[in-house]
Structures are given as structure tokens and as C-alpha cells.
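Question: Hello, beginner here. Any chance you could explain the protein record under this note? Any guidance would be welcome.
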Amino acid sequence: MADTQYVLLISFTDPARCRSAFEDAVHLPGLRQAAVLERSADGLLDVPANEVRGVGMPTVGGGLVGGLLGLLGGPIGVLLGSAAGATLANAAENHRLLEDGAGLIMLSGRVEDGTSMLIVDLHEPSRQPADELARRHGGTLERLPAKEFAAQVAAAERAAEAHGPDDAGGAGARGGPEGDGQA
């Protein structure tokens, strides 16, 4: 099977089993990131565990490349090049992390009261390890191509922007009305 980028959604009725599956998921080959979404019996949402591989690496790499380019300008060039490279790379990395957060927000509506979901973003050389993980921990697995998932998140962000922050009739995290606007 070709190496493909997927977002795996593994649903659990028992949050303890989800957390146990998370501990195994962080060792999956090709893992980019993993997170647990839990909703308590009274409807409160929590992200009790998450793992992101390579956090900070783009920033460090940008600083190194900027420093190397700055060698042409002497010691001050190295300093300025390193700072500029790190700043630009950090901005790109922060943008990616914000997009990932938007994906978790979008998925929160799929987590029913008293249940949890393990979200795993990975470059999957074989389906077997993730399929085995879901089976072993008693989860229900849904596999989405990463490009398709990113398009869904982008569409949700555009819809949210179209409504604007002052839209009192907007939808909550579960897709229902936030309130009737009365205090």
C-alpha cells in the first residue's frame, strides 16, 4: 500500500480506554500528532492528552538557515539573519498549530456526552498498526484522507468567518444554538 497521510478518528464509549489507546498511538509509525477529546456526562469538553511531533523544529531550522545566510553580513548579519529566520519559521509553525486547533474544534461536535475520541494525524505506510490499535482498545475507527479533512476544516473556518464574531445566532460546538440572546 502506498504511504498516505490520514486523519484517524477512533471513537470510544469508555474514556479510560481512549486514554490507554492514546499511549499506544504516540508510538505509531509516521505519527505527526495525536489528541484525545473527551466530553463529560454533563457535556463539558476537555483535551486531556495531546502529542505533536517536531514542534519547534521549523523555528530552529529557520534560525539556522537565517544565521548561515547572515554570514555574508558578518557577526551582525548572523544575528539578524538568525532572528529573522526564526521569526518567519515560528509564524508558519504557529499558523499550522492554529489550523490543528480548528480541526479539534470542528471534531468536538462528534463527541457525545460521556464518550471520547482519539484523533491521530499520521503518514500511514500500512493500515495494520492503527487497525490493530483500534481493535485492541475497543474503539470504532474512521479513516479520512488528510487533504479531505483539511478541506472540511477550511470550509468550517470560512463559514465561521462569514457569520462573524457578533453573530448572536451562531452555532455552538455541537452545532446547536448557543442561546437565545437573553441574560
In short: The radius of gyration is 20 Å. Strands lie at 4-12, 31-39, 45-52, 116-124, 140-145.
